[in-house]
Each structure stands twice: as structure tokens, then as C-alpha cells.
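mind reviewing this stuff:

——
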Amino acid sequence: MINKNSLKLFSTETLIILSLGSSTANSEDVFDTKHITQNKSHQHSEKKAMEGVCGSNMNMDMKGMVMYENKDKLPKDCKEISEDVTIKVAAGTKYAEQYPGTVFGFDNHQWQVKPCARITVEFTNDDKIRHQWMIHGLPKYLYPEGMFHIEVNGSGKKTGTFIVPNSHFTYLVHCDIAQHMEKGMKAQLKVGKGRGDLPSIPGISDPTFPDNFNKNEKIN
């Protein structure tokens, strides 16, 4: 009889073989440990192959991710790249201090580029929590869901590139983490002349529903 305490010293594969061996003497019924080892090695190789690639042009690691990056595919209405622009943007709570009623913010809330510009975003997160730089409204035949997205998990930096089409437009930029946009992390990218200002951009436009910070007002 095998002592129960000694079972802790056996691997799972060994216990399977002992169990099968006690019930049958046929060698064809004994578990193939070589097959188990090869299978584990194959699974490990698959895991390594998928590391950093999650489909749909999304590159991810422990520090964050870049989704739907596009460095060379021109929009249909662009004959060539008009300019290469690098946007350096930081995110964090300290950038909200000058805007009453906000909690999170970018160090800049507006950028302007030429139509057909290739834009490289260097996104730095100064907080210990997750933040995003996400733009909406891009052509869906190039960008799934019309979106380009950078995310940084805590303090760190990620860089990604995309190309805007040949049209005058104002694009929404924000952080999609729950309540981060509502609490101030919202900006706009103007291509060409743009199409006016989006509402509630800190330091740029008035909020749709302004807060009242009158300390003398009585609350009924």
C-alpha cells in the first residue's frame, strides 16, 4: 500500500500511470508520458507564438497595447502622405488640477494636422492606473470600428501610428475607461480646418451640462 503522504511527491503523470497499471497489465493501455511531454511543449510553443498578437492588428503586452496601427496604407482619398507629425501626449490626474470638476486629464486637449497626415502618438501615462488615447471616426475600411487606440497600464509609455484621410474634420479623442472621459480625459484632433469644436473639451469648449461651484448657493 502506498502511503498517502508520499503521493505528494508524485507528478500527475506518474499517478495516472500507477492508476492504470493497477487495473490492467496490457501495455497498450499505459499512458504515454512522452506524448504528454510533447503536448505540453506544443502548447507552450503556441502560447509563445501568440504572445503580443491578439488579432485585428492589436499588439499587447503587460505594459499596455496599440490597436489598429497603420503606418503605410493610404486612405482612398490620399495620393501621398502630406506630413509626418509626432504628437507627444501625457495623461494623469495632475493635468486635471486646473479644470474644476475634473479628475483626469491630458497635458494637451487639442492637436491640428494636415489632411493625409501620418501621425505618430507617443502616449505617456503618469498615473499608476490604466489610461487610453483613443480616436474615433476614422474610415472603417482601414480602421475596424473607425478607431485607433493606445493603452498604457500604469506608469509607462506606448507609441503608435495612424494616417488620417483627406478631409477637414474634428475627431474625438478620449480615454474609454469608465468615468475617465466624463471626469475630464477628453480632447480633439482637428484635421485641416476641422469642423468646429466638440463640446466639453477642457480648456477648449464649454461643457454641455456645466457644473455649479458657487459655494454660497443654498441647497434645498
